[in-house]
Each structure stands twice: as structure tokens, then as C-alpha cells.
Amino acid sequence: MFKVSLFLFKFTTIKSKTFMHKIDIDFVEMTLDIMKYSINRITNTSPEFGSPKKASELKELVGETVTPNGIGGENAFAIWTDILSKANVPVSHPRNLSFVPSAPSRASILFDLVTSASNIHGSYWMMGAGGIFAENEAMKWLVSLTGLPDGAFGVFTPGGTDANLSAIITAREAWRSKFPENKKKRGVIITSGGVHSSVITMAKITDSDVHLINKEEKLTGSDLREELENMPEEERSKVFAVIATAGTTNAGIIDDLEGIAQICEEKGLWFHVDAAYGGGALASPKAKPLFKGIEKANSITIDPHKWLFTTYDCGAVIYRNPELAKEALSQHGSYLDIFQDEGARGFNPSDYQVQLTRKLRGLSLWFSLAMHGTEVYKSAVEIGLDLAQKAKELIDQNPNLEMVREPGLSCVLFRRKGWQPQDYYNWTYKNHKGNIALVTPTKWQNENEPETVARFCFINPDTTEEDIKVILETMN
User: Fold this and answer.
1) Helix axis angle, 363-372 to 106-118, nearest 10°
2) What angle do CA 320, 321, 327 make, to 5 degrees?
3) How many CA atoms lie within 13 A of 314 on its CB side?
4) What is the per-residue burial (b if ≥16 Cβ within 10 Å, else e) of 78-92?
5) Cβ–Cβ contacts within 10 Å for residue 275, how many?
6) Has residue 58 got a pLDDT over 50?
């Protein structure tokens, strides 16, 4: 109590000369209100499902918030708690099984507050050596999950899109360096129909063409070999990378990584594995054999903010040979080349991905790993795998329901017999509005026509079998 009182005394008596750093009793009260709100949000494992509103509705409710003289912290915070926060859908709700949810550990959330308060420049060792060191400890663990050889390493990014972009720029520059005649050629990336949409966007940014193998199910080495053999020689000569998926977002499918790796090695192609969603399952010994061949990749994307219980936004890109990334991505400028002190020379994350200025996104993962240990992560991931199998059992027992395919990692696709597409959307809206669950439909290629089906994606360790039963009962 004495320490808290002393802390408040210092806060209420110290005054700064600049308005942005002015500290007074109102600021202290607002800080305590924010901390109380944060603690309540962190400890509430089943918050109400918020509901999005049109921008015009929100504007009418909140009025003008950015004004010449400000509206005051108390008013601004009240607008947040009473109006704006309720227009968001909590992705960490145990019955939010849509898209790929996120369920950050309490430790990760708390340390994200520390990361923001510290406001460390995480691009250069000179500016953020302590934070970068901690990030790198977490990265070592991530790399160890992949089985890549000694020397492989990576860096944390804002998400899978940036990670994929960094990897493909590296792949393209390595291709152009190896074949100088390709300097001005528009390269080609081969991937499958199940690839994440970010890969298509990333190809546009890098001015590359995407050659899609029209297959939503597992892409095999045989598929790749056949596609390469059937491509015109001119197009085949432009292929510089193949992207396989280790856990498709829609169905959790893992491509034939070993077979694809073998073809890439034969043909001298860069082998990139997008494991943004599925990569978290590498922490589970029982799931790891499904990823055989990932250790042969040239680069890998994993999103800790998906299945490794880290706050948004935290992605990661890992390279077999990080020096190739450094050659392709490091930025140079006279104002940057000032690091002469021996202690300032170290690992610079900005050299290995597309960002220059960056937040230390890996710190919350490091703290959670350090606090809980890797065994807890293994157990938490396996809850998602087990829930997918339990959902299959419950669906198989229900005469009104049937599986579309076997569960892929923690993704479950199933149908309600007799339902049309609109029935699925009506069901989603009704459950969301009733604060029961958020489960959105998806489409699955059924023969030659996409079919609307229901989908679960289990990430949150707080989700229970009872939650699944409650949701399935709403389909009767």
C-alpha cells in the first residue's frame, strides 16, 4: 500500500513543462480507470459479442472527438467503454470459431502493455538491444519447431502478409542474382487453389505472376511435377518459387511438403511454406509428423498471433539462409550508418523484412513463453486438435448433420442436411445477435460447384465440449 501511495504521490506532484507530458491527478485517475478496464477485459473469458455498426451510426452516437481543444480523457474513455468498444467482436471469445480466431495468453496481453509503454525502436540493435535479445530467444524456439538446420533464423513481422512478402522478395532477388538475364523479367510463383489470399496480393506488390494449380485439396509433389512439365518453356523459365501451405485457412489442409520440396530441389526453385495458421501445431508432437518436409523449406511463415496465443499483430518469417534476406531487404542511408560502438553492433531485425521502423512484436510471445514454459504451449495447441475431433464425433452422432471432410488440424467443415446457403447466414446472424456464438459459413468445392457449409476453427483453449454442443443444438 505504501509503495502505491508513494507512486501516486510522485505522479500527482511532478509536473512536466510540455502539455503532452503533464501529469496531474486527472491523469492518474484516468490511468487507474484504464488499468481497471484492462484487467476486467483480460480476466473476462466470455465477454459479450459486440456488434458492428455503420460509420454514420457511430458518428451520430459519439459526435466530434478530435477537436481543437480536446474533449478530455474522461469523456474520450467513456466514449470508448460505452460505445466504441461494443462495436467490436471479441476474437478471443471461446465461442468465436470463425475465420482463424486469436486467443492471446494473459501473460502476452499484459506484456503487450509493457511493450507499448516502453516504446522501443525495434529496428536496430543499437536502439533496442534488450528487446531484440528477448525477441530472438522466442525466435530460436520457433525455428527449433521447424527442424531447419543450424544457421536458420528469422524475424517477427506485423503478420503473415508481410512475412510472405519478405520471403518472396528474397526469393525473387536470389533468382535474379543467380540468373542475371532475369533482372527485368516478371517472375512466376506456383501455388495451389487453397493458398491464402495474401499470397495473391503479395504477388501483385512484387510484380509477379501467380500460376495456380486448381486444387483446393492437398497439393502433392506429383501435381507440381506434372504442372511444370505441361507449362510452356517460356513461362517455366520464369518460375522462381513454389508456395506450399501447411494448414490452409479454410480447411486446415497440409500440402505434401516433402514431395514438393523434392521437386523444388531438383528444379532449383525456392520452396516457401505458408504455415501462418497451421505452424502453431508444430508445438504438438502428435501433429508434427504431418509437417514432414517443412525442414527442407527455404523460408517459412508462421503467425504467433493465431495458434501460439500472442496478441495482434505478430507474424514471423524464418529463412534457411538469412543472409539472402539481408542482401535483398536491408536498407542503407548515411543517417543509418552511425553504429560504431561495439555494443551497438548486433542483430538488426530491419535487415530481414520489409519494415524499417518496427515495434517489438515478439516481446509478448517471449514473456508468455518465459512465464509458462513450452510444455504449456504444447498442451494448449493440443486442446484445439482434440476439440476438432470431438466436434466430428458430435456431428457424426447428429442425424441432421454430416461432415464435409475429415478435420484438418483444428478446422472442421460440416453441413446441415437440407439447408440452403441463406439458412447458414441466417443461423450465423441469429446466434451472433443472441450472444450465443459467432460461427460463420464458408464455401467448399463440391464436385464442380462451390457449396456453402458450416465451419469451426478451434484455437482458444477456453473452448469446451459443452460450447460445441450448445452451438450444434442451434442447428436442430
Assistant:
1) 140
2) 140
3) 28
4) ebeeeebeeeeebbb
5) 31
6) yes
Q: Where residue 61 falls among pLDDT bands split at 50, 70, 90?
A: very high
Residue 344 in grid coordinates:
551497438
> Rounded to whole angstroms, how far apart are CA atoms 358 and 367?
18
pTM: 0.93
Please identify which residue in the block is written with the cell numbers 464442380.
Answer: 448
Residues 6, 28 contacting (CB under 8 angstroms): no
| pLDDT 10s digits, 90-109 | 999 999 999 999 999 999 99
Q: Of 201, 207, 114, which Cα lies nearest the Cα of 163?
A: 201
Compute the CA torsion angle 42, 44, 48, 52 (nearest 10 deg): 0
pLDDT tens track for 117-164: 999 999 999 999 999 999 999 999 999 999 999 999 999 999 999 999
**Residues contacting 47, CB < 8 A, separation 6+:** 41, 90, 93
159 forms bridges with which residues in the sheet?
Answer: none
